[in-house]
Design brief:
By secondary structure, the protein is of the alpha/beta class. The protein has helices spanning 11-22, 40-48, 62-71, 87-92, 94-114, 149-167, 201-210, 237-252, 273-284, 308-314, 322-341; strands at residues 2-6, 26-30, 54-55, 75-80, 119-125, 172-178, 180-182, 216-219, 231-232, 234-236, 260-265, 271-272, 290-293. The longest helix is centred in the N-terminal third of the chain and has 21 residues, at 94-114. The structure holds UDP-4-deoxy-4-formamido-beta-L-arabinopyranose. Residues 85-87, 125-127, 178, 180, 199-201, 204, 216-219, 230, 232, 273, 296, 299 line the site of UDP-4-deoxy-4-formamido-beta-L-arabinopyranose.
């Protein structure tokens, strides 16, 4: 099956493209490169031997988006990653987040209808739960008020897809709610390589350890958690990538009962920020220079997943934990810094 992967040069997108190719899918890439570099496609070719057709296009441009489907009328599936994704940044720049994240989704849906695409996998987020009233969260946990415009765009994206599905029978959808993706490809040829300065915890940890940052700040240790710092469910990016392949295979085999199905993707346990830092120090032997600072606006106190639905219906389960995340992230940081120095 030919699959269009939007945001294919991004962190999760690139790891998913590798997993799709390794599972026999024919991939087309589109990425506007707001926070990614086309050179990622060379790394994907090194790992898979496949040179993926690529369109450096912003999906907000409907005519340029249409050109992709005219060139590839046999696109049967779409995995839609392309979105701005930083919680903190979305609080400062809400209009950019609504404009980019919603209009790119709308154009993908317009093209899906025009070109009779059969399956859409939507990159959603655990941030749709807000400060959940129960933990771990299941797919039935009621969604609370979004804590950031980023989370709001994911809640709205899910609703747009549900409303669209009711008007357009021939297409089915899976909404994947990611918890906290982290780590790097075990080949050490792919990893989190943001063009913008990293804001997520794990790359901030590795940049601090390698010396790119003098120190890092733990955003608050006065929360109601076991050590006062926020709890998150860190999932290795390769496990997350494989879940997309399994979701597409599930739809391709028409195993879905409903037109729109939702799955949590996490490892089913939470780690605090301080526990993540200590896991990094233990795994790498590196002492981390951090200080405790004020809370970050938009942060949820604690969230971690129940992923039984993905396990039982998609046949997916995570293979790696926080140790493999820190090992691969550190290897990747050392490689990247080595290349930057050379
Ligand atoms: C994690 C924890 C911070 C940096 C992410 C993605 C979002 C979505 C959900 C997929 C928080 C703390 C961080 C630092 C810190 N993923 N932290 N110091 O906010 O949970 O959101 O996962 O859709 O796209 O951004 O991730 O890594 O920014 O923060 O203390 O320098 O680490 O306060 O508690 P977050 P994060």
């Amino acid at each position: 099956m030919k699959v269009l992967v939007t945001g294919a040069c991004g962190y999760i997108g690139s790891h998913t493209v590798v997993d799709l190719i390794e599972n026999g899918f024919d991939v087309v890439s589109v990425d506007a490169h707001f926070n990614s570099d086309p050179s990622v496609l060379e790394q994907i070719e090194k790992i898979t031997g496949v040179s993926v057709p690529h369109y450096p296009v912003n999906l907000v441009d409907r005519e340029k988006t249409r050109k992709i489907f005219e060139d590839h009328p046999d696109i049967k599936g779409i995995i839609h990653f392309a979105a701005l994704k930083l919680v903190g940044e979305s609080v400062e720049k809400p209009l950019e987040y609504f404009d980019n994240n919603l209009n790119s989704l709308l154009n993908i849906l317009w093209m899906s209808k025009e070109f009779k695409v059969e399956h859409l996998i939507f990159s959603s987020s655990c941030s749709v739960y807000g400060n959940a009233t129960e933990l771990p969260v299941t797919e039935q946990t009621p969604l609370q008020e979004a804590e950031s415009p980023y989370a709001r765009t994911k809640q709205m994206g899910e609703q747009i897809i549900k409303d669209f599905s009711r008007s357009y029978e021939p297409m089915d959808f899976i909404l994947l709610r990611y918890f906290n993706p982290a780590g790097a490809h075990t080949s050490n040829l792919l990893g989190e390589s943001p063009v913008q300065p990293a804001a997520n915890l794990v790359p901030v940890i590795t940049e601090t350890a390698i010396g790119k940052r003098k120190s890092m700040t733990v955003f608050g240790d006065d929360y109601e958690t076991r050590d006062g710092s926020c709890v998150r469910d860190y999932i290795h990016v390769m496990d997350l990538a494989n879940a997309h392949t399994k979701a597409l295979q599930y739809l391709e085999a028409h195993k879905n009962q409903d037109q729109v199905e939702v799955f949590n993707l996490g490892i089913g346990e939470g780690a605090t920020v301080l526990e993540a830092i200590h896991a990094f120090e233990k795994v790498t032997g590196e002492k981390l220079n951090y200080e405790i600072g004020p809370r970050r606006p938009g942060d949820v106190v604690a969230i971690y997943s129940n992923y039984e639905a993905a396990k039982n219906k998609l046949g997916w389960s995570p293979k790696m934990g926080i140790e493999e995340i820190m090992e691969t992230a550190w290897e990747w940081e050392r490689r990247r810094s080595g290349e930057e120095m050379s």
